[in-house]
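WARN no homologs supplied; continuing
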Amino acid sequence: MTQYTYNSDYLTRDGRAWFPVMGEMHFTRYREELWEESLRKMKAGGVNIVSTYMIWIHHEEEEGIFDFSGCRNVRRFVELCGKVGLLVCLRLGPWVHGEVRNGGFPDWVVKKGEEGVELRSNDETYMAYVRRYWSKVSEQVQGLMLKDGGPVMAMQLENEYGHVGGFRGEKGEAHMRALMALAKEVGLEVPIYTATGWGGAVIGDCIPVMGGYCDAPWEQSVEELSANTNYIISHVRNDALIACDHHVEDAITFDESRFPYLTAELGGGMQVTSHRRPVATGPDIGAMSTTKLASGVALLGYYMYHGGSNPEGKLSTLQESRDTGYLNNLPEINYDFNAPIRQYGTISDNYREIKLLASFLRDFGEDLAPLKSEIFPEDVKPEDMHTLRTSCRHDDTHGYVFFNNYQRRRTMDAHENVVFKGLTAAGEVAFPAVDIASGAYGFFPYHMRMGSKVLVSALATPFCRLNGEEGTYVFYGDYEPSYCWKDGQAADILHLTRAQALNAWKVTLDRDYLALSENYVWEENGELVVTGGADTRILLYPEPAKAPAGFEKVGVEGRFTVYERKLFQGEEVTAEVKVRECSREEDRAVYEIIVSYPAKEDRMAGRDTLLWLEYAGYGMEIRLDGKKINDHFYTGQKVPVSLGYFDFPEKLEVVVNALKKDDRVYLETWPELQDGRACSLDGVEVTEEYR
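OK structure emitted
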């Protein structure tokens, strides 16, 4: 059995430094038939660990009646994680938040609290309810723990305990210890137990995990926020923005020197609220992630990594809302989160940015994890747009220099002729001078061992390694790379532009290959799987012995062999969409979307039709046969809707609710208002996707 533990600086696997990437996906918020494909997409993006909430109200909405069927089948989900080759962190709760009704407590549990049971405490009655629930969870995942050869290697207890509800001090610590003892007692035993550590939360005997978001949709202000601290390279682990609507004075309750700097909730995106709707972009997430690496982090954990939809409740809708005593209203169904993988599985720029770093960590994380960070300068303030933010993660012999010149929603000064200097016991390693533009971020290696060769310095960033230590090393960047080698002995370098690297995928078949493709690429049962349109183009290095299934070789570009897949000979088979306005009132407009599909015999497995809806309004609802199947708060983005997810309906109804000039809402960009309001469906784009 693989051994997982930690020291004060990093996680270890079988005694060796280990730098994983963790991504959150809520199985109850996604259609179960699509779980395996989504897990393969996560693995292709560089994720090693899937974290997921065990949301109590999703499994015991009615007292004593448990539901682990369909999208609630945790056993099936964990088994698929193991099949795909992903580890699992179960975030047990029992209170989880997760933008769920009552923070995940069933209504009947809330009622027990109103009747005198002390919730989130060692109250015997409360703990008996938790025992009953966790015992049922344990029954579902028995045999799937790491000790039994399964993928479940970690569990999180509670969430933001002592920060958002719960007790602080010794009473809070005692409750966290009681939860750990209970988990082990009912069979939920793993080598790693974690607890969220920000905002004064207590951790008991767990390993603290931290977070960071590029904005705060839960903040009650509808104004632009102050410059975000998560773009400052810093040894401060706490993000004061997280759950700042529940702010407490003491930021940290534990001795940081005892634990590695781990994150579980770096925002892979953000879930908007009715009053505050920031949009997380690829550079927002890429720059924040790079900053965390520069600061010494030893686990990149993203919440969310995969969006979804709230399941249907028996007794109520299941979203967080002010009606249930919280400060925020969220969509009833939509949990897209602007995540790397969005609500219906489409790829986002956030995914591409994270993949750059995750691919590096997959091949070189063992080297980076033990390296401590020195920060220059250490006292930069978030509103300082003039100072280039830098650090060096190093030991006595080698390391990486990091820089960040990006601040979300701000413009930084450009810097000319910057000379980065790497630190070693023998002195500094100077890089060639380079111009750093406003908005740039990244890192460069020095004295990097590459098999039998040593790269002294380069103004380029490692992406991955192909076919062993003496194989090909893939780097990327748009600067003149200026590769400098010890004793003039160079390793084999394949250099990509940054744009190419965003669309690059390392895939292992009979050997390692690098694929360039704008959509998902992964290995499944020894074959290359490529998603795309009716005409799909990929580039592969090295050239395989035979073309990937369904593709033909059409040429060569540099070191890459070019392949194309044409699924239709002649006219492309595509769905046709017609839109008509059905009615218009002061506060809403109703539209009908008619979809005509190609003949059934012309359709194929693995095909999806996507609608991209462009609208202006306060929000939108999508209905099928009179039932709401999705909703959305306006952000200015096009809204994807997968028709395959709903078994290819032929008619949808779209209701756009009016946005008025006096509405109290934060939008980064307001739509054009007509007579003080916006209420229109402005366009429907259709794309076809195949795998």
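The chain is about 15% helix and 35% strand.
OK
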